[in-house]
Amino acid sequence: MGWLREALDGLDGLGPKGGLERFAASLEPGWIEEALEATGTASVRRRKLGAEQAVWVVLGMAMYADRSIKAVVDHLGLVLGGDGRVVSSAVTKARYRLGAEPLQWLFEKVATTWSAISGQGGYKGLGLYGADGTHLRVDDSDENYEHFGKPGGRGGPGDAGYPQLRLVALLNLSNRLLAGVRCGPFSKSEHELVRELWALIPDDSLTILDRGFVSFRAFRELVSGGKNRHFMIRLKSNAASEELEILPDGTVLALIHPPDDVRKEDPTALPVKIRIISYRHDGGEESRLAVTLLDHVAYTAKELVVLYHERWELEVCFDEIKTHMLERKECLRSKKPEGVYQELWGLLLVYNLVRREMLLAAEVRSIPARRISFRSSLLWIRDFWTSAWMISPGNIPRALKDFRTGFDHIVLPERRSERRYPRHVKIKMSQYKRNRGRRPKVAEPPQDAAMIPKRSIAKGKSAK
Q1: What are the structural domains, with CATH classification, of the chain?
Q2: Is residue 24 over pLDDT 50?
Q3: Contact 100, 107 (CB under 8 A)
Q4: Residues in Cβ contact with 245 at an 8 Å cutoff, skipping those fewer than 6 apart
Q5: Dist CA 82 CA 381 (whole Å)
Q6: Are strands 205-209 and 127-137 parallel, antiparallel or unpaired?
Q7: Are 207 and 115 in contact (CB under 8 A)?
Q8: Can you say how many angstroms the Cα of residue 356 is from the centroid of all Cα atoms in its chain?
Q9: What pLDDT digit, counting tens, does each position of 134-191 carry?
């Protein structure tokens, strides 16, 4: 860990002034120590793998998804004292002594600080955010199965092959940094999880929602939870509203009234005023957007229709995590729920670390952050972590500056928004019978089993 501390110290002063200025600001020892103290997990006695080293183990797991945890420890030189070696069981114990809370604390610290930094984008003075949900498969261990549960399928409830974790994310669409995440078992609905994210949305903002979040409660809480907070969402075909006025541009002012259950809880609940924009893409069906930006002159319908599709940046975010960071792994590697949550927070923290470095690289080149390749940036940072122990601390700032100024291969060409890709199945499912992961019932032991030595039962032999 000595080289790592020197490396972080060597990064001081690097980058633009203001905000977080260097490659690993989220991981500086002061923040890690604060996280350990805040969650009561700091090491009391000196160990080969203390709490601080365990944090780096989890981050290394996220950076090197294709390597075993033991290989990550050896690769990054995280063992303190002795011959620098540690057995695999010691690494596992260190992870579970640490728990998930310090990694969650660190992620939220970084997300709150970094995502608030303005990036290229926004919309007419409003911060631009997006909220959406997804799921991740977890290891099919008994403990994960009991905690997370499995979604249903053609065979009925719990028919999926793996237990699944559900998460909802809030993304700053201007700088592509995660501003907040909430997660839980698959049985926990996205509506329940997303309500915990509204408090993280700043004033003077526009949040673009997936249409699965159509809900009067969500609309009211988002708008009333701050100053000048707006939302935009695609309405379902059966969404009901009261039409008030047709505006000169053809859009409609309307009211969404509180449902009966909300009226029972709060008889004073007022309707939410929206503007409905109807549009149709070539060859597609009519769609309707609901937005609380009511001025049709300041916020034109055409602009808002184009802006709505910024929501897909969240889908890009999920793809980058699942495809590039996890290397298309079938599931997360941890076999216990505590380890799963710890692994997830480490994964999200490293995602923001990579995204932040991409933002700095984009600022140097004066191009939008979306023009920087996530895959190329991730691979370069992996290489940097791999070789950092061979670089003297004095040369680290120069190495990072080279990344931001000299690597043209990380810059992507301009997006061609006119391209369209119809959905097709490219690879047919396997014809082999699917293993649904059902747990067979354990047969009742014979009544005289207590008289048979355990060793004989295990080998299937008669007792002597």
Answers
A1: 2-107+338-410 (no CATH), 119-315 (3.90.350.10)
A2: no
A3: no
A4: 252, 253
A5: 29
A6: parallel
A7: no
A8: 14
A9: 999 999 999 999 999 998 877 777 778 899 999 999 999 988 899 999 999 999 999 9
